[in-house]
Description:
Glutathione S-transferase Yfyf (Class Pi), Chain A, domain 2, Glutaredoxin, 2 domains, 49% helix, globular, single chain
Amino acid sequence: MELNFEYPILYTFRRCPYAMRARFAIRSSKIKVEVREIKLQEKPSEFLKSSPKGTVPVLIMNSGQFLEESLDIINWALNINDPDKWLVKGKLQDKEINNLLDELEITFKTNLDKYKYPSRFSEIDPHLHRDENLCFLEKLNSYLRNNKSLNCEHLTFLDYAVFPFIRQFRNVDQEWFDKLNFSLLNNWLNQIIDSEDFSSIMKKFKKWEPNDLPIYTNFE
Length: 220
């Protein structure tokens, strides 16, 4: 059964690293979506009907199909259109890429949350969890020794999938981070932060309300 909207609907929250991933891919693929910016503290019922777990991003197509994992949205967008060759094969094998993303989302993200939001946890040392992520940062820095990106000579989906979390980690204490001996990683971060891609996907949209006129964009 067809639903009554013209373009895929993207529920997003501007600062969420997972939602950033999706917006990066939609911008690269030049796919137009209806963007619905929400506040995670005030989740609209329409959003929760689409994603009972209440996390962003969520992409809904007029076929009724929906995607609620950022990597699935990246793959969906790039398999439709990949003009920037984000899916090009690089030096890393698929298994290595998957292992890196698993480490990012399980170990690194867990430590990041305990470092960034220590009040949410009981009896933890945030600096201990900060330091436990140094090995992962060193791994990323080593990947950049022979390339301008994590996997080849140009930025690919892997860079944009990893970047939002490293940026978030750095922002907790940028002065401390910038003193680390990870100059290649810092250059990589700044390359993306200073890019038109990043400024475009971080454009502010008003909070979506059910009776609002749709806002269409491909984040260009």
